[in-house]
Design goal:
Largest interface: A-B, 58 and 58 residues
Helix content of chain A: 25-40%
CATH topology of the largest domain in chain A: Peroxisomal Thiolase, Chain A, domain 1
Shape of chain A: globular
Structural class of chain A: alpha/beta
Number of domains of chain A: 2
Oligomer: homodimer
CATH class of the largest domain in chain A: Alpha Beta
Order of helices and strands of chain A: EEEHEHEHEHEHEEEHEHEHEHEHE
Number of strands of chain A: 15
């Protein structure tokens, strides 16, 4: 049922049964490498283009999820998926091969929580027993689509983030299943927020207000306080965007510095890896949540987390036409006990 | 609840309370002009680019829907929306101004039914009381993104379709509302189907197998026969795709020629308008359903229809890389009595 202004309380507390993750070579050089299920050293994955490689990575990750869950594709009711490529071809072509009824999404880097929120909402409403949420991104396909071809060798701005070559997939099932697992209790869908930032190399600043809006709305809607959660995990605000978010809460009298985590900050080593403000892309939260945070929850190092993926809804064309960057954030609450 | 393999039965039969539609000059020259709420003679709508014009059209259409329903934007729980432009900027920027919690979709020309199906699924599950589904397309923005800039003046292939400059929006509310209206009883989400067609100027042929798959699956899942419906309305198979669909059913022993309608065929006059195989685009079914078919249902000229929007999930890049065109179709059953 809907509670408050933007949140759905999932009374039947669907379970997050299993996840799978896959990343590229740079992410395997980073500090979270032990948490990823699969990785590739070849950014082409044996394919002839980066786009085909990204699509193959998503397909492999979903197949690995099915294998971990002991299922096959015919047991999956629906798959919610999206990516950053024009016309979402990474998802479309991958799911052609997976042969699962498909609901395609676009929410830029917010798509992982959008996808997981919809999957959980569907299971909660008895619209399916096994529903998958997945997203992907690939550094090389994103660079040439959103910025410059790699061959151009352009210098990155200090505020820029590095698109993660990665994917994550999550399987949501009804609570009636006897296997102990994590519960998805609430989902909050965001509004489009635009504070007028036009610099495509500073996504963290552009997306921060959307994260702030969705987190505060989620807390109001659920009547929870910040300390209810062991961690509030944003998708890819990066180093600068994360600082801005902490500052913004500070201005309102709240200190979130000890509970705020950002997947874009965590995935790379800022001292050793040349990734400026950190990671970004649909595959950033997808792989870091499905790898690292899922493990933290399963091992009860964390028991209640709010994940908030943030997306910048511009296109290169809209920026060329002088527009600012509209952003959005969607949140999913995941808990060990209900 | 889920029934059969791909269908959700909406036991609470949410109501389709109101729709609104808006089209461009070519569509107003066509045979359905009396059914559209709004139109523009200026394809720029006073904006500086076709993309901004498309976004403005979507925003105006949603505002008109709110006005027809006697509501304002703060009364709307969620809006499901999508379009054909890269990164779905038409929807993203329009909804920034509308200030409604936003769930972004990409399903190419299948997005209208995807959007309406999700809106109805959400209302059925008590996730909101007023939920909007909307999509748009614009001939000029689509031409330069998917094919050639208009200035190039390229000749169209005889099998090509003309992207509709149009938008439609629908408001779904719970059945508990006392106002008599139409009911959404079932939704069927499609699988990605690819028969290997690589010709981007022959979308009708590429999408027909997806329409066939979703229609037949819907009938199996609901245990309904073809003649249950007064009309089976596809989105934009166009003239050739529609003939292929009728032929395909004929091969299986069914004659659907008398009940099959296609929005892409209906929207233009094939004798007088130079539109080859008819209309296409997210805005085609959105405007034709929200204009013409909604009126047919309200006036009880039709009482039970199945609308099936069809989408081709390729991008210009995937075609350049030698890929074929994967397609998908989603279906929504709308009835006067339940």
């Amino acid at each position: 049922m809907k509670i408050g202004s933007q949140t759905i309380q999932l009374e039947n507390t669907p379970k997050l049964l299993q996840t799978a993750s896959m990343v590229g070579p740079k992410e395997m050089d980073g500090p979270l490498n032990q948490f990823f299920d699969l990785h590739t050293d070849d950014v082409f994955l044996g394919e002839k283009s980066f786009e085909k490689a990204e699509s193959k990575m998503l397909e492999q990750c979903v197949n690995h999820l099915l294998s971990k869950a002991g299922m096959n594709n015919s047991m999956i009711d629906y798959i919610f998926a999206g990516d950053l490529l024009n016309q979402c071809i990474s998802s479309g072509y991958a799911i052609r091969n997976l042969n699962i009824p498909f609901i395609g999404l676009y929410g830029a880097c917010s798509t992982f929580c959008e996808s997981l929120a919809l999957a959980a909402s569907f299971v909660n409403a008895n619209y399916g027993k096994n529903i998958i949420a997945t997203t992907s991104s690939h550094f090389c396909s994103a660079e040439r689509q959103f910025r410059m071809p790699l061959e151009h060798g352009n210098q990155q701005s200090p505020t820029s983030q590095c698109t993660v070559t990665g994917t994550g997939a999550a399987l949501v099932v009804p609570n009636s299943s006897s296997i102990h697992s994590l519960y998805i209790t609430h989902v909050t869908f965001g509004k489009v927020i635009d504070f007028g930032i036009k610099d495509m190399t500073n996504m963290g600043a552009a997306m921060m207000p959307a994260a702030y809006s969705t987190i505060t709305t989620h807390l109001q809607d659920t009547k929870r306080k910040l300390d209810y959660y062991d961690a509030i995990v944003t998708g890819d605000l990066g180093i600068l965007g994360s600082e801005l978010l902490v500052d913004q809460f500070q201005k309102e009298g709240y200190d979130i510095s000890h509970i705020h985590k950002d997947c874009g900050v965590l995935i790379y080593d800022k001292e050793k890896q040349d990734t400026h403000c950190g990671g970004s892309g649909c595959g950033c939260m997808a792989s870091v949540f499905s790898g690292y945070f899922f493990e933290q929850l399963k091992s009860k190092k964390m028991n209640k987390i709010l994940i908030v993926s943030t997306g910048a809804l511009m296109s290169p064309l809209s920026i060329q036409q002088g527009e600012s960057i509209p952003s959005i954030a969607h949140a999913v609450a995941i808990e060990n006990e209900v």
